[in-house]
Amino acid sequence: MFLFLGLYLQMILGYSPLKSGFAFLPFTAGIIVFAGIASALLPKVGPKPLMVPGLLSAAVGLLLLTRITPETAYITHVLPALLIMSSGMALVFIPLTTTSLHAVSNHDTGVASAMINTSQQIGGSLGTALLNTVAATATTTYIATHKTMGKSLQPFAMTHGFTTAFTVSAGLLFVGAIVLAFFINIGKEAVVETEGVLAH
């Protein structure tokens, strides 16, 4: 998401790298605020009631980004999506460790944590490669079918590629939410158990 949104801000809206960095600050602020909320709620409700709505919220934020064009403004189209996505991702990140380390014995906690980090890095790399391919294909197809647009073709084609990648990302998050809803059955009592494992 950050890759395509950063390209959109700089190459389409004409933001400088510094201004683009500031444009992402609301996402960071949202993560901080909702991470605190998630941490407080986790022992009371357990992981699933946080993670499923979190994935759905993040997906909604990505769907909002599919509405961007070379003519839309940051404040009306990008900022609301960033805030919604940050709230959703915070609700996912905080319970993730608890869910991943559930039923892991004390002496395997370090290995399990390393596997979580490794999986996140590999998943992020593979996801970026996949979505890059999706965006590039969508951009190429748009150019091939809109040759009469003239000089305005390039920004619209690039934006179409970005929004296609956002759509695919949202779809993956929706699938993830469905999987969590039906296959993750960890109650709030697991939070206390996992915190005890981490304390050791």
TrEMBL record:
This is Unannotated protein. Residues 1-188 form the Major facilitator superfamily (MFS) profile domain. The chain crosses the membrane at residues 24-43, 50-68, 74-96, 161-184. The keyword Flavoprotein does not apply. PANTHER family: BLR6921 PROTEIN (PTHR42718:SF46), MAJOR FACILITATOR SUPERFAMILY MULTIDRUG TRANSPORTER MFSC (PTHR42718). It is found in: Cell membrane. The keyword Membrane applies. One of its GO terms (cellular component) is plasma membrane. InterPro entries: MFS, MFS_dom, MFS_trans_sf. Its main location: membrane. SUPFAM superfamilies: MFS general substrate transporter. Keywords: Cell membrane, Membrane, Transmembrane, Transmembrane helix, Transport. One of its GO terms (molecular function) is transmembrane transporter activity. It is a multi-pass membrane protein.
